[in-house]
């Protein structure tokens, strides 16, 4: 009889915080609807989110936090990186290091930022309604490496190479090309609204009309990309390692997920019952498990957009390969990659998509097979 693996430091810390832990296999359709309870450490209401793809990686953590109207959260600093997306409301965040000036910036729904590593930060909600944000972190690996939450939250070291109190820190933004022929990267410490932020206009191999913009924020190793694609279009299926988290920003649709062992045509091969279908919209999160194909569909009436969070960017490389080599995910399986070309995918995929669009009164704009 196999033994249950012992709990990690991160598992024990989550359970000890006294707030709900929303667990799911593939994803959660609406993170704003997750039950939240009073979180003593922050003076807000919150809940952790634990998806299978995150748990498999041991790297990615996530939680949702509510700031009461007219209130603020407790000041906090920590040795893990934290990416913040504002789901609802408006307010401000104050950032400082001991002995350095405090800097404050305002945010609203759609804003995206990351408190520089181990800086003090405090969230304020000056509105008459609750504000809500989603935080994606690398707390699990940091907690498990040091197995001391007291150290993670209590160390006084300042990372001067990441932040040293610059007055214009949260106003900096530039678009850079890290590698020839690859998508551009937005290097910024604050994005006012991810839903309307600039995306590299060049079509990428992931699908018809798919545009991608990488991002680098607050000198983190935790990074990712924004992806946008047209009405009536879906991505090509691909797989990679665990740990990536995707958040819906605009439009709606669904995502299909299935283990690579089922091959590129699970419906045709009589194994469609093993394919997971998750509906997504603005505020949905999903995390593909290790080696699972995943495919994103837009059934809404506007271009779809999501943001993918993962470890290891083009600026600060890592030997740790959690998600894996992103290049394989945009290379056809015919050439040794992990991406299924449209002409090689299961016929049921396009057939079901066309049916969903017809029900929604939307024209299918997928390219003809073989074109």
Overview of this protein structure:
The protein is mainly beta and 371 residues long. It contains six helices and 22 strands. It has helices spanning 9-16, 52-57, 139-146, 149-154, 326-329, 347-360, and strands at residues 21-24, 27-28, 37-39, 44-51, 61-67, 82-88, 90-96, 103-108, 112-113, 120-124, 131-137, 173-176, 185-188, 190-191, 211-216, 222-229, 245-250, 252-259, 276-281, 285-286, 292-298, 304-311. The strands form four sheets. Strands 1, 3, 4, 5, 6, 9, 11 and 14 form an eight-stranded mixed sheet that branches. A hairpin with a 4-residue loop joins strand 3 and strand 4. Helix 1 crosses helix 3 (139-146). It is globular.
Mean pLDDT: 92
Unreliable stretches covering 5 or more consecutive residues: none
How many distinct helices? 6
- Please report which band the strand proportion falls in: under 5%, 5-15%, 15-25%, 25-35%, 35-45% or over 45%: 25-35%
Structural class category: mainly beta
* DSSP summary, beta strand count: 22
Output the helix-strand order: HEEEEHEEEEEEEHHEEEEEEEEEEEHH
Q: Tell the overall outline.
A: globular
> What does the radius of gyration come to?
21 Å
End-to-end C-alpha gap: 54 Å
The main sheet comes to:
8 strands, mixed
Helix content: 10-25%
């Amino acid at each position: 009889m196999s033994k249950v693996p012992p709990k990690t430091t991160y598992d024990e810390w989550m359970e000890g915080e006294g707030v709900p832990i929303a667990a799911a296999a593939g994803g959660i359709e609406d993170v704003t609807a997750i039950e939240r309870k009073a979180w003593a450490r922050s003076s807000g209401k919150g809940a952790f989110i634990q998806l299978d793809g995150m748990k498999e990686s041991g790297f990615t953590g996530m939680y949702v936090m509510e700031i009461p109207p007219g209130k603020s959260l407790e000041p906090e600093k920590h040795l893990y990186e934290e990416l913040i997306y504002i789901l609802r409301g408006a307010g401000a965040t104050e950032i400082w290091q001991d002995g350095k000036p405090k800097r404050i910036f305002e945010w609203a729904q759609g804003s995206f930022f990351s408190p520089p590593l181990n800086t003090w930060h405090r969230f304020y909600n000056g509105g008459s309604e609750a504000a809500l944000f989603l935080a994606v972190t690398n707390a699990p690996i940091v907690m498990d490496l040091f197995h001391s939450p007291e150290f993670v939250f209590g160390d006084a070291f300042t990372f001067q190479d990441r932040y040293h109190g610059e007055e214009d820190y949260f106003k900096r933004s530039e678009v850079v090309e890290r590698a020839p022929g690859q998508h551009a990267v937005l290097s910024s410490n604050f994005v006012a609204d991810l839903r309307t932020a600039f995306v590299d206009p060049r079509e990428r191999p992931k699908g018809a009309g798919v545009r991608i913009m990488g991002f680098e924020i607050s000198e983190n190793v935790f990074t990712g990309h924004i992806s946008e694609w047209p009405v009536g279009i879906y991505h090509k299926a691909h797989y990679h390692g665990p740990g990536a988290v995707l958040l819906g920003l605009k439009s709606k649709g669904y995502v299909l997920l299935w283990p690579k062992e089922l091959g590129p045509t699970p419906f045709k091969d009589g194994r469609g019952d093993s394919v997971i279908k998750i509906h997504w919209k603005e505020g949905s999160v999903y995390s593909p498990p290790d080696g699972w194909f995943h495919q994103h569909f837009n059934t809404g009436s506007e271009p779809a957009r999501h943001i993918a969070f993962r470890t290891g960017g083009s600026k600060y490389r890592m030997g740790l390969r959690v998600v894996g080599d992103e290049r394989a995910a945009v290379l056809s399986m015919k050439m040794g990659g992990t991406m299924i070309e449209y002409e090689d995918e299961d016929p049921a995929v396009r057939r079901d998509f066309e049916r969903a669009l017809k029900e929604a009164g939307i024209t299918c704009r997928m390219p003809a097979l073989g074109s």
